[in-house]
Description:
InterPro entries: AMP-binding_CS (IPR020845), AMP-dep_synth/lig_dom (IPR000873), ANL_N_sf (IPR042099), Mitochondrial_ACSM (IPR051087). One of its GO terms (biological process) is acyl-CoA metabolic process. This protein is α/β, with parallel strands linked by helices. The chain folds into 3 domains: about 1-30 and about 210-360, ANL, N-terminal domain (Rossmann fold, 3-Layer(aba) Sandwich), CATH 3.40.50; about 60-205, Rossmann fold (3-Layer(aba) Sandwich), CATH 3.40.50.980; about 365-420, Luciferase, Domain 3 (Luciferase, domain 3, Roll), CATH 2.30.38. The chain is about 30% helix and about 25% strand. It has helices at about 5-10, 15-20, 30-35, 60-75, 95-105, 120-130, 135-140, 165-170, 210-220, 240-250, 265-275, 285-290, 300, 315-325, and strands spanning about 45-50, 55-60, 85-90, 110, 130-135, 150-155, 185-195, 200-205, 230, 255-260, 280, 305-310, 330-335, 340-345, 360, 365-370, 380-390, 410, 410-420. The protein has a 6-stranded mixed beta sheet with strand order 9-11-12-13-14-15. The chain has a 4-stranded parallel beta sheet with strand order 4-3-5-6. Helix 4 (about 60-75) packs across helix 5, helix 4 packs across helix 8 and helix 9 crosses helix 10 (about 240-250). The longest helix is centred in the first third of the chain and has 17 residues, at about 60-75. The model has no long low-confidence stretch (mean pLDDT about 95).
Amino acid sequence: MKTLTQAYAEFDLNQLIQQQLNGHEQRINAFEECCGRYVGHDKVALIWEGKNGEQQSYTFDQLAEYSGKLAHYFTSIHLQAGDCIAGLLPRTPELLITILATWRIGAIYQPLFTAFESKAIEHRLETAKTKLVVTNIDQQSKLENLNINQILTVKNIDDDQNQEDFWSVIHTFDADCPIEYRSCDDDFLMMFTSGTTGLAKSVPVPLKAILAFKGYMTHAVDLREEDSFWNLADPGWAYGLYYGITGPLSLGHGILMDEQAFSVDRAIELMKKYQVNNLTGSPTAFRMFYGFKEKFDDSVKQHLRVVSSAGEPLTPEVIHWFKHDFNVNIYDQYGQTELGMVIGNHHALEHVIKIGSAGFAIPGHRFAVLDENHQELGEGGIGVLAIDCDASPLLWFKGYGGNNRKSFVGKYYITGDTVQLN
């Protein structure tokens, strides 16, 4: 296994661009990076488990065809590169097709979590100047009194079929919609993050971030071609969208998407069915696992190889349980919507592991702990966690929407989190 020190020494951004991107700094497209480049290899891109017991697989070829048709529809209603298209959808194939179609025309995908109420949706749509919302019948009522340019709805079989809907427009168009290439500094995601006060702030995510997402999946998650991978997080939020969809697909790795509500019993069922060996999620989910630990038998334990956790620190009993009952390491990792994952205990790199620690900077990043005067502290120092922008070539965050750079001081991005350097 390569050491973390070796990975730091070998890091070369230009070499990374040449080796890992299908495009380059001035000619890149997220659809091409996450789907198009893998067409023709007969690889499964999506396994979908429906809320009513349906199960269906889609290859990269099929997703390319469907998203090409939808992208053609988008251009027919005058959507173009740089426009914002939102998805207010559950974990379904239509969600992934919408994302890929948006990227194909060089537009910006905006996730809307399905548990949001109308006010939260309205603020996000107005702030992002969203041109189209793709939703379904269950969510459509939230949009009724909002000022939205256009809505495309996924209808059920028993709905009014005389109205235009998601699948009817897809079947109307052919799949040869041209791919619109952009530069690495152009945005492809429009996220939102809420601070301690005030309204949620927009977080534009540039195409450059795909490289950083790949780095986390490769070094920290240790995603391998042969893995059966499952990210438990919802793609309406950053961790689910960055590392449940974009990251694995950019590596040509299929994803598992479950439309049913999360429960321990449901998670166990799917982990057994798909022999999941690489699992990521939040500490909340893993605490729920621990609360029903008697339900996890050898048919689950025998397959798990690595587990990654993000969002908040893991509790010692959860770490101990995975290690002693599963013989598996569950590692803490750290990130923000604004940063993606930038610190972690790395499954694929050898380094010292200290329980309770978030770990080390993911290659391509450097962090520091600052005092109240924004001076770097040494070992044992307690201060605010910051990212050294000058020494972090994979850092992609440029500021909140409206050129809001209040979180930047000198060469540092200030996370706002208090930590101790150990």
